[in-house]
Amino acid sequence: MVDASQAGSGQPVSLSVAGAEARACELLKKTDDLVRDFIMNHPFTQRLEEQSLPIEAIRAANLDWYVFHREMAASFSRLYKRFVNICRTHVVIEEEYLERISHELTRPKAGGRTLLLRKLLLALDVPEAKINEPSRSVDLRGLVAYFGRLHSEGTFAEVVAGQIGSALEPYARLWRDALTRQCGLGAEAVQYWEMNCRLGQDKDGGGALGTRQENALLLRQAFEHGLTETRFNWSMEYAAEMAVKVWALMLRGYVRRFKL
Length: 260
Known about the structure:
This protein has a single domain (4-257), classed as Heme oxygenase-like (Heme Oxygenase, Chain A), CATH 1.20.910. It is built from 14 helices and no strands. 67% of the residues lie in helices and 0% in strands.
């Protein structure tokens, strides 16, 4: 974990359009690099890529992701109210938030992406009672708590910096392939991960996770309009780093739990 005392609080500065674009690209690349180093190179992910995870680990990881995505989608839908003054001042930001909330709750149908994960869990023979009342490990609670507090307490800059959707695509691709080839599931069952395989080029919206284009837009708006205020001993870079490292802790928990 990064020492928060070493992260600068940052001062709001409005950048030119070109400067905002450059800073947005830098932050997106930082998230890409973090996901590569802490997620894609993780022992759990390597077993996922080899398609050699035990079925118990596959079920547990997807159940945890269902809980995480459900909680994140709920907290993300409240962000518009928190940032209503920013949204009403900057129309592009308002349109983006409203569109993403709509996509999260209605695409590909009413109920959105969370229902796709529920369908996947049923296809994996996870009991419905367990889906309705899932147990939560310490690491899962940490991941949910981080994003919940980020959405409820973080500044606009911290929230847009902590979006991991831009870098989720390669991880999602591994899940799609493992569930299809190792578990023999059909396209309908793996639709959640299939949708997240297109976050780099999807035009239909990434919901709460955000596509690369959507997250880049919000970052550009933050830098261009000087919406970069952060809390004491935080920075946008720190928010991005924490998001990925807390996620990596959950993967470490599977390695220990299933002796991978």
